[in-house]
Design goal:
Elements lengths: L4 E2 L18 E3 L2 E2 L12 H7 L3 E3 L4 H11 L14 H9 L18 E2 L20 E7 L4 H9 L2 E7 L4 H6 L4 E4 L10 H10 L5 E4 L1 H9 L3 E18 L5 E13 L8 E6 L5 E6 L4 E4 L14 H16 L1
Parallel strand pairs: 1-3, 2-4, 6-7, 6-8, 8-9, 9-14
Antiparallel strand pairs: 5-7, 10-11, 10-12, 12-13, 13-14
Helix pairs in contact: 6-7
Length: 323
C-alpha cells in the first residue's frame, strides 16, 4: 500500500469481496494503533493474524513504488526466519515468477452454487432490473468478486457460479441466457484450459468478460496478451469509452493486457486506458461478446462503469428476441 496510514478504518465483514482472504502478504508504511470507523469489528492486525497472513510495516512503500515505476514489477520476499542470509533470500526471489503460473486454481470455488444473497437496499443504487425479465447467467469463478454477482442480481439475473474447470458442455446444457467470465489473478497464458472453455462457448450465448475474463476472451479470439511493466492498480484510472466518447474513472487491478494489434478483423476495441493507451475493453457483435479490462462493479470504487451490466442485459435481451 502506498498510502502512508493503513488500519485506521479497521475491518468489517460486510465489505468482504470473496469467500475467504487469499492474501499471501501485506506491506505497509504505518500501521494505525486505533480504529475509528463505526462499521469496524476487527483491527487489521487481528484480521491478518487470524488468517495466518504475513504482514510487515515501517517500510518505505513510496520508495518501493518509485523503484517499480522505473524498473517495472520485481519479485520480493517476506520471511520470518531471521537465520536466513541475504543471499538465501535473494535466491528465493530469483526462483519464483508470476509468468506462467496458474493462480486461478487456488482461488476458484470447488463446486457450482447458486448466488442467493440479495443486495441490501442502502447499497443498491440501481434496481432497474427488478421490473424486467429474469436472465439466467452462468458465472465462471476465476477469483470472482461478490459485487459482480450483486450487480448482476440487481439487474434481474439468476446466477449460477461454477469453478474455473467447469466444462463448457455442462454450461451449455443449462441453457443460460449469458455467460460471465470473471476477474482473477495471474497470467492468462498459464490457464489454457480456461481459454479452451471460452472458445467452446463463444458464439453459443452472449458473454461478458471482466479483467481476467477479458484477457481470456482476447486469447480465445486469437489475440495475444502480454505482461505490463508494472500493471494497473488503484481506483482512479481514466478510461475513454470510444463508442460514446465519455471518460470513465475506473478501478483496476491487473498485470497483463490484450494486444489489440493481434486481434482478428471484426473485433472492436471499445475502451482505452488514457494513462498509457492500452486496451481496456472489447466487443465482437457478430458473436455477442463484450469485455472490460477493469472493474465495473468497483466495490469499493467509482460507479462510472456500472452501465456495462445494463449493456450485458441488453445483449442477452436482443439475442433472446432474435432467437
Amino acid at each position: 500500500m502506498t498510502n502512508p496510514h493503513i488500519g485506521n478504518t479497521g475491518v468489517n465483514f460486510d465489505d468482504d469481496e470473496s469467500r475467504q482472504c487469499f492474501l499471501a502478504g501485506l506491506v505497509i508504511r504505518s500501521l494505525s494503533i486505533t480504529t475509528s470507523n463505526w462499521r469496524c469489528v476487527e483491527t487489521l492486525g487481528d484480521y491478518l493474524a487470524e488468517r495466518n497472513v504475513m504482514g510487515i510495516y515501517d517500510v518505505d512503500t513510496r520508495a518501493i513504488t518509485c523503484r517499480l515505476r522505473q524498473d517495472g514489477s520485481l519479485i520480493g520476499v517476506l520471511s520470518t526466519e531471521q537465520s536466513r542470509s541475504d543471499d538465501e533470500l535473494l535466491e528465493m526471489s530469483r526462483s519464483w515468477d508470476i509468468v506462467g503460473i496458474d493462480l486461478i486454481s487456488g482461488v476458484t470455488c470447488n463446486a457450482p452454487y447458486e448466488w442467493v444473497d440479495e443486495t441490501k437496499s442502502e447499497w443498491d443504487f440501481n434496481s432497474d432490473g427488478r421490473d424486467r425479465d429474469t436472465y439466467r447467467v452462468i458465472a465462471y469463478d476465476f477469483g470472482i468478486k461478490h459485487n459482480i454477482l450483486r450487480r448482476l442480481a440487481s439487474y434481474g439475473c439468476k446466477i449460477t457460479v461454477v469453478p474455473s474447470t467447469w466444462p463448457a458442455a455442462e454450461t451449455l446444457k443449462l441453457k443460460p441466457d449469458g455467460v460471465l467470465f470473471s476477474n482473477g489473478p495471474g497470467d492468462p497464458s498459464a490457464v489454457p484450459y480456461a481459454v479452451e472453455t471460452v472458445k467452446e462457448i463463444l458464439g453459443k450465448v452472449p458473454v461478458f468478460g471482466i479483467c481476467m475474463g477479458h484477457q481470456l476472451l482476447g486469447q480465445a479470439l486469437g489475440g495475444k496478451t502480454f505482461k505490463m511493466k508494472f500493471g494497473h492498480h488503484g481506483g482512479n484510472h481514466p478510461v475513454r469509452n470510444l463508442r460514446n466518447r465519455r471518460v470513465e474513472i475506473s478501478a483496476q487491478n491487473h498485470n497483463y493486457a490484450v494486444d489489440p494489434a493481434s486481434l482478428p478483423e471484426g473485433v472492436e476495441v471499445t475502451h482505452v486506458n488514457l494513462n498509457d493507451g492500452s486496451c481496456a475493453g472489447l466487443a465482437y457483435p457478430a458473436l455477442s461478446i463484450m469485455s472490460l479490462q477493469y472493474h465495473p462493479e468497483a466495490s469499493p470504487g467509482p460507479h462510472d462503469s456500472d452501465c456495462a451490466f445494463r449493456e450485458f442485459i441488453e445483449l442477452m435481451e436482443s439475442t433472446k428476441q432474435a432467437a
